Amino acid sequence: MRLRYSFRLYPDTGQRTALARAFGCARVVFNDAVRAREDARTAGGAFPTAGELSKRLITVAKQTPSRLWLGEVSAVVLQQSLRDAEAAYKNFFASLKGERKGPKVGTPRFKSRKDNRQSIRFTANARWSVTDSGRLNLPRIGAVKVKWSRTLPAQPSSVTVIKDAAGRYFASFVIETDPAADATRMPDSDQMVGIDLGLTHFAVLSDGTKTGSPRFLRRAEKKLKKTQRELSRKQNGSKNRDKARLKVARAHAQVADARREFHHQLSTKLIRENQAIGVEDLAVKGLARTRLAKSVHDAGWAQFVHMLEYKAARYGRTLVKIGRFEPTSQVCSACGTKDGPKPLNIREWTCAACGAVHDRDHNAAKNVKTAAGLAVTACGAQVRPGHVLAQRAEAGSHGFSPEPRAA
């Protein structure tokens, strides 16, 4: 499995200038490639190949007065920028044909020096290296100080230098992980668990464990409002506005970093302790259009489930997603009776059939585990809830009205 390891960079003043120059040159080459493609499309001709673009936009352009400064940065940075443009068009056409999963991808747009994120990439043939003192030596930039938060498990194949909206610099390494080493780090477990994700509690497990919702955005709202108000009062184009924009970006970055760290810690703990995990396939985009939109975005369920997915694949665990229309909050986990939808203010309810008293979220987590096929009998066999024959009045599709599912 290929993963990315990111580390904070601390370039000095001269290195910041060199990085800004490299960001600008890569951006210009990318925009030139997009312009060449658009001109060919407008003229009705064939798209220029990658080789033609490399020769025209880099090799020949360096010899012209208008692009002479392209020679001040590493040629690998410019070549990788062309590859990024090529990949952007491949993704666009694949999305247009329906061959690419996920949301539709639009046509590549021109990059701007005002974009929140700037990046350049160095491959192995750029001859970048890590010095004996632990600095990252980049061609035409120099030895940049790195904050190594952990050791790299293998030799990276490339490094991407990123500048985010908050003005921070990061080095992102592509690592090929070793399956044998991963198996040693995470030995097999005999535990299985179902997870019910929510807003009152971020995660409730089928064993009764509850993890509170940190609400990082809600807790930082006062500070965010203050910094945003200060930004709105600054004059456009002024240096004070740039400083205020950085304050806003740093405040948002703190919220995002804290949320990501929380997701990493919880997902790693669950993967380490359980061999199989069941979770609902939530319609986050739909929930983000309701009155709970801010809280849904603050929870970050999609990011958390994504972490569970790739960590389960890396460490040999099983992650089972159940359908989003599974009535986990309506079914009694003790007898299997469907008790109907319930409003969100009902946190506990009693089953009319067997009299069992259920905590809403804990009961849903148990049903997630059962629906995922992770529930086990006394003899150790996995079971799923049995099929129930429909009543005569319920059979067929005439006059059928699906019951709305409560959250």
Strand and helix order:
EHHHEEEEEEHEEEHHEHHHEEEHEE
- Backbone shape: elongated
Percent helix: 25-40%
Unreliable stretches covering 5 or more consecutive residues:
377-381, 383-407
Radius of gyration: 27 Å
Question: How far is it from the N-terminal to the C-terminal residue, by CA?
Answer: 36 Å
How are the strands of the largest sheet arranged? 2-6-7-1-5-4-3
**Count of runs of 4 or more consecutive helical residues:** 10
Helix vs. strand class: alpha+beta
* Quantity of strands, as a count: 16
Strand content: 15-25%
* Overall pLDDT level: 89
Biggest sheet details: 7 strands, antiparallel
Can you tell me about this structure?
The protein has 407 residues and is α+β, with helices and mostly antiparallel strands. It has helices spanning 13-43, 50-60, 75-96, 179-185, 216-232, 239-273, 284-287, 293-299, 301-315, 360-371; strands at 2-10, 118-123, 129-130, 136-138, 142-147, 158-163, 169-176, 192-197, 201-205, 210-212, 276-280, 318-322, 348-350, 357-359, 375-376, 382-383. The two termini are 36 Å apart. The chain is elongated, with a radius of gyration of 27 Å. It is 40% helix and 18% strand. The strands form four sheets. A seven-stranded antiparallel sheet has the order 2-6-7-1-5-4-3. The protein has a five-stranded mixed sheet with strand order 10-9-8-11-12, with helices on both faces.
